[in-house]
Design goal:
The chain is of the alpha+beta class. A hairpin with a 5-residue loop joins β1 (about 85-95) and β2 (about 100-110). The chain is built from 4 helices and 19 strands. The radius of gyration is 36 Å and the shape is elongated.
Length: about 375
């Protein structure tokens, strides 16, 4: 027996194949495990993307939606985004101020291919997602403060509902210039002078389809005089012009009376809770350009937005205005338009269409107000 062993050790004949086979088995197992691991990583990434999309989709549902109904919608959205396994809605919380938070998880026992060699038939994969929505604009109350100019003009608020593409009119503010001329005599000769700024009547309407409901009217009345007005009414607008024909200075005083419907109303209270997009449009038939839009980078620079009547910076040239951001929650935004009669940039004193917008905020369905927190 010892002789046979010595012969085997000293022998130079035989094959290395059995040894190679034995050495290859661990290598194949390692490669197989890496394939399953790569598959698990890819599956987890796909599950996370599907869960993120699914949880975002249920944040657009009404606050009255039950958790059970949200769970069904979550699972459907998760499957539609090719997520593997089952998804669970863990929590839904909508605070009184409209702040909302949602969290969900997804789990999937991924079958293995090569790990079964080690009796590992599945690998548990789990992902989670959480989102938070801040309160956002749900109602905007528009109220005209002063409109002037020789040109008739109309401002509209347009909104596009969720899942729709066509914008609809939500509000209309229409200004009609009413000319005023002051006639006076010097000796026996008569002279006529027009008020230099131009005022008229402004009507504010809410719009619902083809129905327009008037909610405010401002009527401005001008008086002329050869002498300066003493103790003019509070809030009246003074003006003057020198008549080149007579050499006289003519003084004007304009008072604007505002009526709201109903009395002491907020003006145009516009429900924007169902709107995904908003923009303002000013139509000035005599202007150049004739159409100004807040979401048009070429014409939005004729819009002024600020925090007070005296602090209204002009929108920078080339900038589009997001109306949802321009109207702060539970505060008043002061806005104005320059209708095209003056070159821009220009000080707000050149504007001639002034109004206030007060925002009311609560829970909203816009995904743009949603932040992923996990």
């Amino acid at each position: 027996m010892f002789s046979s062993a010595r012969d085997f050790v000293r022998s130079q004949n035989g094959s290395m194949m059995p040894i190679m086979v034995i050495m290859t088995i661990p290598l194949l197992i390692a490669v197989g495990f890496s394939v399953d691991y790569t598959s698990a990583v890819t599956t987890r990434s796909n599950m996370q993307n599907a869960l993120d999309a699914a949880i975002l989709s249920i944040t657009t549902m009404e606050t009255t939606t039950s958790k059970a109904d949200r769970q069904v919608a979550l699972q459907q959205a998760y499957a539609a985004n090719n997520g593997d396994g089952t998804v669970t809605l863990q929590s839904v919380d909508v605070a009184a101020d409209g702040t909302a938070s949602f969290s969900a998880t997804a789990a999937y026992p991924m079958p293995t291919n090569f790990m079964t060699i080690a009796n590992i038939k599945t690998v548990a994969i789990g992902v989670g997602a959480s989102v938070r929505k801040t309160p956002a604009l749900t109602q905007a109350d528009f109220k005209v403060t002063k409109v002037s100019g020789y040109w008739n003009k109309t401002m509209y608020l347009y909104g596009t509902k969720f899942a729709q593409t066509n914008a609809q009119s939500l509000m209309k503010i229409d200004y009609k210039y009413v000319p005023y001329q002051f006639t006076y005599k010097v000796g026996t000769k008569s002279y006529t002078v027009s008020e230099p700024k131009g005022y008229g009547t402004t009507s504010v309407y809410t719009v619902n389809g083809t129905t327009q409901t008037q909610v405010q009217q401002q009527t401005c009345t001008t008086t002329g005089s050869l002498t300066a007005f003493s103790n003019p009414p509070a809030g009246s607008i003074p003006g003057s012009v020198k008549d080149s024909k007579s050499g006289k200075t003519i003084y004007f005083n304009t008072t604007c009376a505002t009526t709201t419907y109903p009395a002491n109303g907020a003006g145009a209270a516009i429900d924007v809770s169902q709107m995904d997009k908003l923009y303002l449009q000013m139509d000035v038939p005599s202007g150049n350009p004739q159409t100004l839009k807040s979401d048009d980078a070429a014409t939005s620079n004729r819009l002024y937005i600020g925090t007070s009547e005296t602090d209204m910076p002009e929108v920078a040239t080339g900038e589009k205005v997001d109306i949802f951001s321009a109207v702060p929650c539970n505060q008043t935004s002061y806005q104005a338009w320059e209708d095209g009669g003056n070159p821009v940039p220009a000080d707000v004193s050149n504007a001639d269409f002034f109004y206030n917008v007060t925002g009311k905020c609560a829970f909203n369905k816009r995904q743009s107000e949603t932040v992923m927190t996990q």
